[in-house]
Amino acid sequence: MAAMTDVVLPAVRGGWWHAYVCPAHGTELAHDTLLSGAFPAGGAACPYGCRVDTDAVRGAWAALAHQACARRIRLLAYEEPERAVTLLGEYAERYAGLAVDVHAGGQDWMLRGRLFHQALSDAIWAVSIGHAAWTLAGVPGVEAAVPLLRSVAAAARDARAELVAQGRFDSNYTAWLNAAGAVATGALTRIAATTTDPAHGLAGSARGEAADPARDDAAGSARDDATDPAPGGAAADWLGGEYGVYAHVLAASAADGWEWEASTYYHGFVLRAYLLALRGTDPAALPAAVGERITAMIGAVAGIATDGGILPALHDGPYVRDLTALEWTELCTLADAYTSGAGLAAVGERARREAGPAYDGLDAHLHGWFSAPPRTGSEPDAVPVRRTFADAGLTVLRGNGILALLDHGPHGGSHGHHDKLALYLYGADTAWQPDPGQVPYAHAFWRNHFAGPAVHPAVLVDGVEPAECTARTVAVSANAVTAEVTDAYPGVRVVRHVEAADGYLLDVVTVDADSPVRLALCPAVPVETDGARTRWLGDETLHGWHAGAGTAPIVAYPGPGTADDPQATRTWLDWPAPDGTATFCSVYQAGAATVTGVTLADGVLVVLLADGTEHRHDTETLRHNGTEEG
Question: Where is the composition biased (Basic and acidic residues) (predicted)?
């Protein structure tokens, strides 16, 4: 846990945090000075020894510093309330002096904020500030934060109206704008209920105010702005109004529980905003469709996590990042409070470890977040071998010490990656062949690289980037999935069958093309190969046997690391098919190997086992309907 250090607020507005990246190495810069109030002398540090000092990096540092200070104030509200009240008062003065108009420094595509380049960053910061004030209600001096809370609620409403006018209500921004409005209004209501000081304009609004900010008090909603703690409506409107949290939950997520971008990071991003916005509510009292959808969203996270808590970094999320890990610790704690059987204990524990020295223990203070016990979960008696999220187009297979995830869904919008029919492989605690994640967006070269096809374990045709596309599910069974894509490349059909077979994982890829193709194997761990066998190392070992028709031997070559450190050298594997039409068959086992070999002849893959038995798989049958019974 991080030591409680002093906090000095940044004196300047925040920029775009994604610019906090080394231009030479693509790595995020150091976070160790974010509470100091001053940009580091000599420039922000890169892990490779660079020091970077540009206007964009200074603005990015200020953005991260404001967020870090707000989070620390939120923690201090529990542990040193008097100090937290002082800092809130300082922030109220600073905001009044800095956020006097819409920020002119943002890029043209940005929905601009007031304290930051982006209104999204304003809202994330405001949620932390609002929760600090909420926790501090009743502590002398907290009333100084009232003008700040009123301002951020009004700014959130203005920004949300702009998004709605643009037809972008389902944006992940909206989740945080609603959370900022709900939390600021809830904090104002709490403060109003604990003060009679007319100097802050709260005495009238406290009269008869419900303790629960989520209560839909029609009389309170009808108050004019002179007495309403947050101009623009009560907390109930931010939750249940036409463009409130409840409406956004249903608009931005699908029936399978996934946020529409099918990105692990952005899914967790909006889910955390919802849970933060719902402080003080009864989870079981939410509108049924909303309450069930949030439960499904929590289940989607649990559904892709390994037993050791690894979350695949699908579609534009950080691979490993300490500040993101802090967010996951909070989300996991709130999820447990929201629904029984959330299944995120291992994810939370891993996130605490990944946060490292940045871990501050805030999640331990979040007991009593909701006004009632968790919703009753409906967890299955056993985790299924296959689980498909139909709307996101993600299938997870678990068995024999391997978690395999096949991406066969929509591209994912601006956060999508060119990885259709990519197969990601994990042990409980080892990412053998993971989604490599994404760097901070301001590094154009590495951002394009990690969104492109070259770093994903999928089929690449003639070295050309595929079109944005969606695969079609051919067949599913209790332990297998078969999917195809026909519009990634003109005239090219790719089919992938993945099966948790008896004792091993089976992967069969067939390609019909008239140009050279290759199947990429993308290890994130040391790997050994002789062209037909692979051995993937790590905390757990993965053995692979590979046989093909129309293919050349597997070739090893040096490649970049995952997005947390692109400069790390890894051994990458290319499996080429020079004439385009080919069948690639792989058999994987974790731990001790009982497979002794594989052969492919006349379309039949034979898996030889140490006990002398043979398993036969007809690749043509698998290609067409996913079952061996026809």
Answer: 209-226
Which residues sit opposite 416 in a β-bridge?
none
Residue 571: which H helix or E strand, with range? strand 569-577
Residue 110 amino acid letter: M
Q: Which amino acid is at 15?
A: G
Question: What amino acid occupies position 96?
Answer: A
Query: Is the pLDDT assigned to residue 214 strictly greater than 90?
Result: no
Q: Which pTM does this prediction carry?
A: 0.93
Rg (CA), the chain: 26
Fold of domain 386-625? Beta-galactosidase; Chain A, domain 5 (2.70.98)
Picking from 122, 120, 123, 96, the residue whose alpha carbon sits closest to that of residue 183 is: 123
In contact, 280 and 214? CB cutoff 8 Å: yes
Q: Give SS3 for 450.
A: helix
Paired strand residues for 540: none
CA distance 546 to 133: 59
Paired tokens of 405: 């995830």
Residue 355 neighbours by CB distance under 10 Å: 22
Instruction: In whole angstroms, give the CA distance from residue 291 to residue 285.
Output: 8
Cα dihedral sign, 147-282-350-395: negative
pLDDT in tens, 296-332: 999 999 999 999 999 999 999 999 999 999 999 999 9
Specify burial of residue 289 (Cβ count, 10 A radius: 0-12, 13-18, 19+): exposed
How many whole angstroms separate alpha carbon 312 and alpha carbon 347? 11
For residue 119, how many C-alpha atoms fall within 13 Å in the half-sphere facing its CB? 31
Closest CA to 4 of 81, 64, 63: 81
Residue 83: helix, strand or coil by DSSP?
helix
What is the SS3 assignment for 521?
strand
Length of the chain: 630
Contact residues for 385 (Cβ-Cβ < 8 A; gap 6+) = 397, 398, 399, 478, 479, 500
Q: Are 56 and 109 in contact (CB under 8 A)?
A: no
Do residues 289 and 352 touch, judged by C-beta distance below 8 A? no
Backbone angles phi, psi at 553, to 5 degrees: -60, 155
Rounded to whole angstroms, the Cα distance separating 515 from 91 reads 61
Beta strands 51-52 and 44-45, pairing class: antiparallel
Q: Do residues 318 and 324 make contact, with C-beta atoms less than 8 angstroms apart?
A: yes
Residue 628 has a pLDDT of 45
Query: 420 — phi, psi (to 5°)?
Result: -65, 130
Nearest partner of 257 among 287, 302, 309, judged by Cα:
302
Q: Pick from 586, 587, 570, 580: which is nearest to 459 by CA? A: 580
Contact residues for 158 (Cβ-Cβ < 8 A; gap 6+): none
The total of other beta-carbon atoms located within 10 Å of residue 144's CB is: 17
Is residue 20 within 8 Å of 60, Cβ to Cβ?
Answer: yes
pLDDT in tens, 267-277: 999 999 999 99
What value does the mean pLDDT take over residues 579-604? 96
Distance (Å) of CA 310 to CA 348, 354, 450: 10, 10, 19
Give the C-alpha separation, 569 to 574, whole Å.
16
Residues 178 and 127: their CA atoms lie apart, in Å, by 10
Q: Taking a C-beta distance cutoff of 8 angstroms, is the pair 590, 597 a contact? A: no
Which token pair is 522?
């993308």
Residue 70, CA distances (Å) to 58, 118, 139, 269, 304 in order: 18, 16, 18, 17, 31
Whether residue 46 is predicted with pLDDT greater than 50 in this model: the reply is yes
475-499 pLDDT per residue, tens: 999 999 999 999 999 999 999 999 9
Sign of the CA dihedral with 506 first, then 512, 518, and 522 last: negative
